[in-house]
């Protein structure tokens, strides 16, 4: 795509701005920033990183997404689920590397992987995460995040990235909570949950920042002993940070980076699609890949951590009336302003209140309905969803996503291992042929008509000869097999081999293989691939013509 | 499956034996044993194991396969490609474990994995290895095997499981060959290659054993210094060997065992299918899984190594007229006899002659034709095939198969990421609807008819709403969308979510979604899954009826 393709729409937008969209976008940016300030601090804490890392990840990434991305609704920055994945990945960093340094490497890798995927047009990889795997993962991650924040909320000492780790850590500390921290945390959590019940509007939108401010004021006024606070943030110093070029560090971060890139892309794309569908717009997956790649490289070069589109903030941005991607530019500006002016205030922010804001944000998304729906529809898929959730809670995100993807592929293989091939006969008095199992049709004693009902790919190709043989076993008098190919949209190299094997098997049995109604593009490919070198049968334009052939 | 299902066919066969098949099966067993003796010694050497391990892997495994398997043509025992995989896997065994002990663990794991796959009905996993991956792998493995035998053939000191390892090992030994070994090896190789040109028949079949015998006699008569020989075999002692129960050892062998199981199963199934097709018979993948599981467990318990069906020996067995699985029982008996009587003779067998027999056996299978065919048909798949070959040669079988499977899935995702959805219109004066791009049809200005041409699965589901939106963008006056579902054979949970998303998106745009000609089984599943709870459109038996609906 030429560079002008990025710049041109932006230029047009800027020109129309003063008349049409400026006010809406600025308002949306304000609303989003109000939520982004507590979230950026909280998600950095969740990822085991200093709070300013979250703020830096909220500055340039939305700006880069505005330049390169495609959706006017996405807010790109720190995300809760990614924060948990970052925490687990950083645990693997070699000794002597600080978490902040490792986070830069991770963000750089995520950006490079997404950029490579955009260049190689691998946007289709989003399909790897099927709905059961995604639902199962998100629920598990949400519960794991909420559980990991519970000790912070209560001022306790436990920590861990999954439930068994948390449990054993809590047990070794004797399950001790701290009164003053618990008070701040529980009150903040109850307040946030109560505000949820308000109708949508300004009060509901301001609630997260309001609770944060009240918490800060209370901490400042009472100054209770032993209450953990965010602490002094370093002054805004947006300079170039270059991730360490250490091969060992890059290699150990790579598997985590690949999963963060995949999940960040898929979840951002899902948010963008769902918001675009509301207004009948379309989403361009490659542009999303580029926007996220740019955002993560920006995070890596300016002291941030891996970023993606946040579901809650993007919905807010859409509801608040954002019209163009310029909203992202305003968000970046407002966050920069906040960093300069609010630092002394944010230093007083009590960590239990931040923990409460994380828990309130993620728990809103937990629903068991998808499990019930999946169970009603397909038990194997419901089982897969549950296993993925349990793996996230009990083992790790890597194990959950890895086994989830493999499980989905195994289910797909099971489902598609045998191609759907119907025995078809003639509807008396017509030239139409239909499935013998559903229609009263006439069969020819010597010519067997079969309809292949799907594309021939490596998933189902290897069973083709066997499926045809099973039909032949029921009608041993067959002298010729005529395959109706009209439903076949594509044939891959394995499918071609399957046709060749079938052709050869029938030839050995003294039976001829003919084809009818092969789609144009499919036939072109077959001919280019040397089909005429080995195929001894005939091709017919219509199945009826093929059935009547007397050669 | 009840036990009688295994025993009954066997009993019937035994009863008919004396009249009909005994002679044919005995003759086939003799011919196969003649090839199996040199191959079992050679493949054990290739796997870095003592020669008797190969002989033990040729004893009970064919017997167990005869009991549990389904094909009358397969000879199960040591296989060249698996031997290379065993060599690479045994390199990972922890210190203090002998290769023979590790081979028992490996065979036990392969047997247990195949048995578990049979119980879980996972026979469809064979489709994981697409034709390009399988071809690419086999060619690479064949060349790597031949290269690894070259130093043995020439009496040189180099060793290694891939080309870079072999090269650096040979260089560190100064590329020195040994005159007498080279003489034995090269003469044997030339003799074996020359015999290849003989017409099929007794002389051609006896050639491998003949060359071996001449080599043995020459070694015995000349007794040249420095010629490596097989050496004294321990006397036949078929007792129970129990694989070591060491968790660490089992865990390190597991990934290799999984690949050996997958590859052994897929290659055996492919041989069985190709031999069955010749005579119009069918193969039962689950029975093959059970037969191979039994064979590998037998190998683990009697001092052998992982076993599978050998392509060359199975073709020989089929050509020699094997009629029933009893042939396997006779092979086991003959191999036992050979172990007892031929041990002193085999001890004199020169290793360069064995190396020549390996090279001659595997090089027969190398062909560049599949690469050319794939290149003509699909460049991406040809590239995948080549990359897999290069990975086998340059890195390892694990890397090659792992990346090969991922690459095939990536190509599949790319190919199927967008569901095939055609805009259809009415053929004037009829009730038939066809693709507007191929037929002269009438379109309704307000009702858009779309035909979904494939099953809705997680691979393509997520793009459904986008594909429909793209059609809507060309006809913004559309008030209602009618999807013709007759080509849809199945809808998984992700596909159901895609339909739901599409339904919701259209509702938000004030458009209704209707369906026509939904297949019976698909509709049943949708209804069981709570379809009526959210679907506001209508279902029509025929597309024409749906287009004319005035509600």
Report what the structure shows:
- The structure is a homodimer of 551-residue chains.
- Chain A contains 24 helices and 8 strands.
- In chain A, β6, α21 and β7 form a beta-alpha-beta unit.
- The first copy, chain A, has 2 domains: 374 residues, no CATH class; 128 residues, STAS domain (Transcription Regulator spoIIAA).
- The longest helix of chain A has 32 residues.
- Helix content of chain A is 62%, strand content 6%.
- In chain A, the strands form 2 sheets. A 6-stranded mixed beta sheet of chain A has the order 4-3-5-6-7-8.
- In chain A, α6 packs across α11.
- Chain A is mainly alpha-helical.
- At the A-B interface, α11, α16, α18, α19 and α20 of A face α11, α16, α18, α19 and α20 of B.
**Helicity of chain A, as a percent range:** 55-70%
- Oligomeric form: homodimer
The overall average pLDDT of chain A, rounded, is 87
Taken together, the total number of domains of chain A comes to: 2
Low-pLDDT segments of chain A: none
Which term fits the overall shape of chain A? elongated
Query: What is the topology, as strand order, of the major beta sheet of chain A?
Result: 4-3-5-6-7-8
Quick overview:
The first copy, chain A, is mostly helical and 551 residues long. Helix content of chain A is 62%, strand content 6%. Chain A has helices at residues 4-17, 22-46, 51-56, 60-68, 80-90, 99-119, 131-153, 163-172, 179-195, 202-222, 247-278, 285-301, 311-319, 326-346, 351-363, 369-377, 379-394, 397-416, 458-461, 464-474, 493-508, 520-528, 531-534, 543-548; strands at 76-77, 308-309, 421-426, 433-435, 447-452, 480-484, 512-516, 539-540.
């Amino acid at each position: 795509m030429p560079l002008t393709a990025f710049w041109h729409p932006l230029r047009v937008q800027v020109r129309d701005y003063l008349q049409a969209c400026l006010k809406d976008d600025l308002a949306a940016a304000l609303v989003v920033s109000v939520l982004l300030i507590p979230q950026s601090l909280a998600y950095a804490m969740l990822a085991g990183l200093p709070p300013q890392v979250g703020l830096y990840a909220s500055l340039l990434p939305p700006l880069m997404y505005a330049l390169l991305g495609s959706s006017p609704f996405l807010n790109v920055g720190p995300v809760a689920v990614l924060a948990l994945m970052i925490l687990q990945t950083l645990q693997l960093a070699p000794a002597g590397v600080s978490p902040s340094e490792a986070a830069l490497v991770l963000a750089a890798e995520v950006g490079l992987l997404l950029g490579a995927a955009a260049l190689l047009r691998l946007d289709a990889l989003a399909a790897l995460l099927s709905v059961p795997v995604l639902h199962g993962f998100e629920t598990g991650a949400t519960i794991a995040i909420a559980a990991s924040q519970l000790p912070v909320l209560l001022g306790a000492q436990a920590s861990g990235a999954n439930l068994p780790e948390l449990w054993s850590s809590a047990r070794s500390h004797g399950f001790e909570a701290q009164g003053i921290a618990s008070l701040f945390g529980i009150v903040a959590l109850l307040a946030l949950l109560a505000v949820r019940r308000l109708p949508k509007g300004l009060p509901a939108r301001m609630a997260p920042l309001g609770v944060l401010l009240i918490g800060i004021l209370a901490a400042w006024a009472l100054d209770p002993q032993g209450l953990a606070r965010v602490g002094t943030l370093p002054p805004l110093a947006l300079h170039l940070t270059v991730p360490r070029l250490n091969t060992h560090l890059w290699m150990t971060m790579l598997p985590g980076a690949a999963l963060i890139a995949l999940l960040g892309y898929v979840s951002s794309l899902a948010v963008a699609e769902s918001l675009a569908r509301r207004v009948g717009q379309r989403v361009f997956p490659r542009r999303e890949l580029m926007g996220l790649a740019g955002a993560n490289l920006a995070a890596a070069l300016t002291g941030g951590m891996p970023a993606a589109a946040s579901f809650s903030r993007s919905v807010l941005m859409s509801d608040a009336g954002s019209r163009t991607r310029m909203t992202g530019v305003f968000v970046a500006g407002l966050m920069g302003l906040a960093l300069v002016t609010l630092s002394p205030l944010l230093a007083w922010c009590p960590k239990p209140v931040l923990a409460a804001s994380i828990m309130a944000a993620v728990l809103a998304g937990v629903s068991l309905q998808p499990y019930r729906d999946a169970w009603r529809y397909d038990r194997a898929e419901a089982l897969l969803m549950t296993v993925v959730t349990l793996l996230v809670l009990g083992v790790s995100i890597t194990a959950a996503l890895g086994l989830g993807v493999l499980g989905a592929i195994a289910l797909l293989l099971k489902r598609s291992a045998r191609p759907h091939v119907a025995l078809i006969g003639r509807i008396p008095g017509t030239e139409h042929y239909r499935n013998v199992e559903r229609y009263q049709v006439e069969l020819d004693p010597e010519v067997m008509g079969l309809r292949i009902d799907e594309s021939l790919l490596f998933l189902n190709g290897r069973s083709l000869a066997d499926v045809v043989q099973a039909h032949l076993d029921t009608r041993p008098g067959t002298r010729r097999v005529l395959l109706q190919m009209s439903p076949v949209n594509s044939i891959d190299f394995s499918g071609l081999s399957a046709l060749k094997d079938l052709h050869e098997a029938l030839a050995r049995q003294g039976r001829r293989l003919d084809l009818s109604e092969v789609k144009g593009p499919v036939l072109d490919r077959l001919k280019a691939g040397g089909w005429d070198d080995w195929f001894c049968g005939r091709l017919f334009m219509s199945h009826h013509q093929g059935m009547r052939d007397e050669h």
